[in-house]
Amino acid sequence: MLQKSKKEEMIKDLEGAIKGSESLVFVNFHGLKVNDETTLRKSLRDKEVGYKVSRKTLLKRALKGKAEGEIPELAGEVAIAYSKDQTSSAREIYNFQKTHKGLLNIIGGIFEGKFLGADKMMEIAMIPSREVLYAQFVNLINSPIQRFAVVLDAIAKSKS
């Protein structure tokens, strides 16, 4: 059994992680092996995403008043993934979930100051990164210009 001072320290640690993040994802990690968790933590650290395993009761205490709405049901063994980027924590958990089937489940999260369920967090997880979105946008803008250049080149070749 944990001492009260240790519990308070853990709650403060969780509150600090929650306060310093733009988004937070609740993850059920039941069945995750140690070597898989090590791989997960390393990949999250590389993407500047924090990851903490917590007791549900302590997590619920730390979450009180931190967002609008109702806390989603935290079933099973729960961890949180958090980051300063709004979508990277959900996206990185989702990416790991795709490569390691059945080991992790997104069960909810906090986005823009509101508690969200698993469905909404999965939608957020599927949003590409900012760099990918920029590349897609540039490609979209550049595409008509490239086609126009190809047409002009074809006309020039046909006249010569």
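^ that was protein a. below is b, sequence first then the tokens
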Amino acid sequence: MSHGYATGRLNLPFVGIATFGKYPYVENWDAIDADVCILGAPFDFGTQWRAGARFGPRGIREASTLFAFGHAGAYDHEDDVTYLEDARIVDIGDADIVHTDTMASHAAIELGVRKILAAGALPVVLGGDHSINIPCINAFSDHGPVHVVQIDAHLDFVDERHGVRYGHGNPMRRASEKDYVTGLSQFGIRNVSSTAKEGYDDARSRGSDILSVRQIRALGVEAVAARVPTEVDIYLTIDIDGFDPSIAPGTGTPSHGGFLYYEVLDLIAILAKRQKIVGIDLVEVAPDYDPTGSTSILAAQLLLNIIGRILHAKE
């Protein structure tokens, strides 16, 4: 008996293998044929307090299945656009991580991003702690100029502490040293900070535009977007602790007074319409600190919406 069921599979979110958005898995990094490529970077030995972001890629992928109901695309009635329709997205799994070996792990992440760029796809890297941004930026050495837009509670502009140069407090400083990084927009920086005044002075002297959440709310997203240089490609690095811990508690160093969802999405949507976003990493999701899964859902929802807007702008 048919029981009146439709043919084919319903494929509910909790069914199947949890690739990102249930998009196809590509094991061979030399056979990538897609517009967007998801890479996991489950490395968290760069943390200075609570570890656990090594489980970020797994948590974000599982959460992303919520938005994979099997029907094509995602209709947004506010924009009157169906995003992600016929999107060519693949998940290439994770970079290999060698426990306690930062340089070997970072090299594996850099290799993955270089393979994605070689295939002409947009790399979207799931961290991991914020140190994984260092190999991601390294991989753009042949790309030409990029401007880094950072969403974060923390400046991450430490040069060196006790010999540490590649931890999660260092990535924006390492990026600023690249001759192909033209500047940084550091948005969401706030509160009791791990960075002393000298760090802010140093960052600004090297071309950083630093705004807190309160300053951004006072200016409005249109005005903030207008401060980002238009004549250069954007690399986007999103630390989940840029968001308020009321909606993103699952992170190692939560900081109150953070962004809400639409503040960040609306800002990035303006940038995606206006110019090329050529790389993305989203870091510091540590699912074990959030038994509700809300932090991972926020990360997955934000990434899918950003990817949708980038692909739509291309059309």
